[in-house]
Amino acid sequence: MSINFSLRPQLGLQLYSLRSQFIKNIPRTFKRVRDWGFKYVEGSTISGVSLEAQKKLLDKNGLELISLAVSYEELLYNPNKVIETAKYFESKYVIVGWIPHDYNVIEFDKIKIATDFFNKSGKLLEKEGLRLAYHTHGYEFQPYKNGTLFDYMVQMAKYFTFEIDVFWIKMGGEDPLLLLQKYSDKISLLHLKDRKIGTKSNNSGQVDSDTNVVLGSGDVGVKEIVAEAIKLRIEYLFVEDESQNVLTQIPKSLMYLQTIS
């Protein structure tokens, strides 16, 4: 399969989609990503595999690790290592996708602490030619004052940007398209993921992985979102599929994207 997605933004793959396949065979999985036609990828380092070996596999398959995904704790306790690793892979972004919290409710105090931390870390990364982005997971859309916790984060973000996951925005009870339009100046990256029709929304950040369906077959509104992302010049769109049917769903999602680009 060859991706014909010539318009901005660039299309990539979140490697977490293939976490089960990486466990079985790392080289074969990187080759699969290449054979699907991807050039840009996003993801974390692979446990037990040297950075050198991972870089060789990326280079061998013509893949660029645009975004290095790290945990909140990694960035908090060892920012220099995060910077060193991101620069080694020649990444543009460092992504954090979860704020530590208990159960399904996150208090404002933790959001405030995290937002302050992201501004501080983002400023540090900027000096090294990197950008910090926070990836949404649904719980940020819990109510706060006249809006949501996400509204607060965006309004306070000075030295970091956002990677919005349209599936999780929908799960959180928000409209992904309207949110993209509202905060386009604070959004640099986007996760394309569709939701099974009939799935009930909740803002806990938890859901059955098989509610992830082929792009265009769910209720997220992927066609309109892609059109708006291109219009707004969002830098990268990353396909992500967390279902158990990822090997069959991703090719179908790519075929769908071909038809709307």
Protein model, in words:
This protein is an alpha/beta fold. Helix content is 42%, strand content 18%. The protein has a single domain, classed as TIM Barrel. It is built from 11 helices and 12 strands. The strands form 3 sheets. Strands 1-2-3-4-5-8-9-12 form an 8-stranded parallel barrel. α6 links the parallel β4 and β5.
Task: Assign the CATH topology.
Answer: TIM Barrel
Structural class: alpha/beta
Query: Which geometry do the CA atoms define?
Result: globular
Contiguous helical run count: 11
Helix content: 40-55%
Q: Number of DSSP strands?
A: 12
* N- to C-terminal distance: 16 Å
Strand order of the largest sheet: 1-2-3-4-5-8-9-12
% residues in beta strands = 15-25%
The assigned CATH architecture is Alpha-Beta Barrel
List the helices and strands and how they pair.
Layout: E1 10-14, H1 19-24, H2 26-36, E2 40-43, H3 51-60, E3 64-70, H4 72-77, H5 79-88, E4 93-96, H6 108-127, E5 131-135, E6 143-144, E7 147-148, H7 149-156, E8 161-165, H8 166-171, H9 176-182, E9 187-192, E10 194-195, E11 212-213, H10 222-232, E12 236-239, H11 246-260
Parallel strand pairs: 1-2, 1-12, 2-3, 3-4, 4-5, 5-8, 8-9, 9-12
Antiparallel strand pairs: 6-7, 10-11
Helix pairs in contact: 6-7, 9-10
